Amino acid sequence: MPELPTQVPWRRFVCVLHKLGYTPQKGKAGSARSFMNLGRIPNVVSFREPHPGQNMRPQVLRQSLQLLEQDEFMLLLKDC
Fold it and tell me: Residue 19: which residues within 8 A CB-CB, separation 6 or more?
């Protein structure tokens, strides 16, 4: 099983969410970003967008694995 990368740019992370069918939701000011997919559980997921020039932290990547298995995440990330 490939290991999770230590850094993933936000745009690549959002690409994986998009491939899973999640679409961004309009939000209020701040760094919290919500994504919705009525066909998956959970239907709504939220993540904090890192400051410009920063990457997703490893603990947030591990949190995202509630959506799918690590191998599937790595496969989707490869094409983003």
Answer: 76, 79, 80
